[in-house]
Specification:
The structure is a homodimer. Chain A has helices at about 5-35, 45-60, 90-100, 115-120, 120-125, 130-140, 145-160, 175-185, 200, 205-210, 250-260, 275-280, 315-320, 330; strands spanning about 70-75, 190-200, 215-230, 230-245, 265, 285-295, 300, 325. Chain A has 14 helices and eight strands. Chain A has about 350 residues and is an alpha/beta fold. In chain A, α3 crosses α6 (about 130-140) and α11 (about 250-260) crosses α12. Chain A has a domain at about 40-85 and about 170-330: Rossmann fold (3-Layer(aba) Sandwich), CATH 3.40.50. In chain A, α12 links the parallel β5 and β6 (about 285-295). The radius of gyration of chain A is 25 Å and the shape is elongated. The longest helix of chain A is centred in the first third of the chain and has 32 residues, at about 5-35. The interface of A and B includes residues 228, 251 and 258 of A. Chains A, B: This is Haloacid dehalogenase. Chains A, B: It holds the Pfam family HAD.
Chain lengths: ~350, ~350
């Protein structure tokens, strides 16, 4: 009877110590699991390359350390942060607006490009070329105040549904990219959008969806005009192009709006090539990456032959320069927030 | 003998208590003194109004509380954060540049507006009007890459001296405004420059001087063009106006670059009126303020009749709407960092 409590007493420190080790291991394991900042990314070279970059630039002891003020990451939006098929969502917004506004414009029934839109005749619409598209944009994006336009965008996003997924467009954002944005910010990065899309089309919703505040959005714009209406100041949206933030316009937009060269840039099409070249040419560690749409089942598969989001020259340059190419099918465990 | 220690003992708690009060008062006094966030401002209504505004919008318990993301404050630069006499400093930079570049342009000796500059003939220069000034700006601000221009600006600031104060231009910044910027940031504000001056002329030095990073600078700009030179991407500065961030252009610039309406705006001239009107028209607590140059001795005194930084209509509107008017002579204990 005596020996058992005695052994027990002698063993107690050991048991305590073992328990502690087990507890610590358990905690470490739980922490490691909880601490995967990119759970929607499959393990592999791509995930590893992205995590390694973020880690080294944020690590004071690393020779690749970059002070927080210089940790600027830029992201294209269409096809990089949210989907862009069957057409840029802002294009679908313009088509919907034409239909909403048509009763006030009976002449549109007989006038291109509006006739094509009202008759859902995409061939005739495409035949109108860029000139037709600009006319559509101006008819749907100008002629109201900035405050009114913001309300129109919010209303559309609240009611419109994507033709394939039957969900609001703001749900067609890429969950892996949302995790990446959050992880970059947790590591002292400022995450900017640098998109060919309209800056005023994006600002009303990107904070809620991506955690990116309006002031960190660079995009295309039409001109606005300040005036006092019965003493009340307004900004009227004019049917005149101000800035096209696409292709060679992206480095121009980055310089104009941010004034610092990014150290990381993410795109998905030839429209992002110059932004990646501009980012790559700075000193110190750099991360250039392209999202390659390779998943026809969960999303879409397209690259060199696509009319929307064509990825051709940029893909070649990425491969030859060793930039990261995210293979959606291979690298993403989950695509949209709503997918399993 | 007995009675004294007895009294002493009975008094001890009182003495202790009194000492505590004295200590606390002393500490509070020291704290009040140490904690004055605006030591270069004289006590009075102006300082009080500014401090009260900052306090209430940052106080969660206040009915005027504003969440940090919306705490946007915008500042004009010339005449608001640094001096602007006898001419906008960027104008003085352009004149200096003409002289530096003259040997490469022998034709300038006979051609206006260059001839006027080279002969220091300000009357002839003024006679050339806006057209002449634009020509001067283009000859001195375009025709190089953005990287080259940044180096030119930095070099000028390192060597040029102000004609009256014989100091680098970056020392002619207002110490009270620097304290205000820091106090706003300490209270969760983002402090932006929104200036008629060139954005690329300001970005190289404002972080060091005001603590304002390049990405929080909105200003006028000329166009730039992206190109690959022997494979190296550059942005070439073109002799073409892109955006004038002055007068009615300031709310346009705020909307374009920031995409949020500020809750506080500081200016000093009629060029800032629309920015203040735009700021004033938002919901919730607002602070609109003008720096009134009233101190010919320590700085300059000018307003309604001045050709540089004219303050006329905005002064009337400030008075009628109860906006804060900072009287430099009365409200500022110290003007420049180097003054006593």
């Amino acid at each position: 009877m005596r020996i058992i409590p005695s052994i027990s007493l002698r063993l107690r420190p050991l048991v305590f110590f073992l328990s502690l080790i087990l507890l610590m291991n358990g905690a470490a394991l739980a922490e490691r699991k909880a601490a995967d900042p990119l759970p929607s990314w499959n393990s592999g070279q791509t995930k590893q390359a992205i995590l390694a970059f973020i880690k080294k630039v944020a690590d004071r002891k690393s020779s690749d350390y970059v002070p927080p003020a210089k940790r600027i990451a830029v992201f294209d939006n269409d096809g990089t942060l949210w989907a862009e098929q069957p057409l840029y969502f802002q294009g679908l917004f313009a088509l919907d607006r034409v239909k909403v506004l048509a009763p006030q414009h009976p002449e549109w029934k007989e006038r291109q490009p509006f006739k094509a839109v009202l008759e859902n005749d995409l061939t005739a619409l495409a035949a109108g070329g860029d000139k037709g598209l600009v006319e559509l944009v101006m008819a749907t994006h100008a002629g109201m105040t900035t405050t009114e336009f913001e309300a129109i965008v919010k209303d559309w996003l609240a009611t419109a549904r994507h033709p394939r997924f039957r969900r609001p467009y703001t749900e067609l954002v890429y969950q892996p990219m949302r995790e990446l944005l959050a992880h970059l910010r947790a590591n002292g990065f400022k995450t900017y959008i640098v998109s060919g899309g309209g800056v005023d089309f994006m600002r009303p919703w990107v904070e809620k969806v991506y955690g990116i505040p309006p002031e960190l959005v660079v995009g295309s714009s039409i001109k606005t005009k300040f005036e006092l209406r019965d003493g009340k100041p307004v900004l009227e949206r004019l049917p005149e192009v101000d800035f096209i933030d696409d292709r060679a316009g992206k480095p121009v937009g980055i310089h104009k709006f941010i004034g610092r060269r990014p150290i990381a840039a993410f795109g998905n099409s030839d429209g992002d090539l110059q932004m990646l070249q501009w980012t790559a040419d700075g000193d110190g560690p750099r991360l250039m990456a392209l999202v390659h749409h390779t998943d026809a089942e969960r999303e879409w598969a397209y690259d060199r032959e696509s009319s929307v989001g064509r990825l051709d020259q940029a893909l070649d340059e990425a491969k030859s320069r060793g930039w990261v190419v995210v293979d959606m099918k291979r690298d993403w465990k989950r695509v949209f927030p709503f997918s399993e």
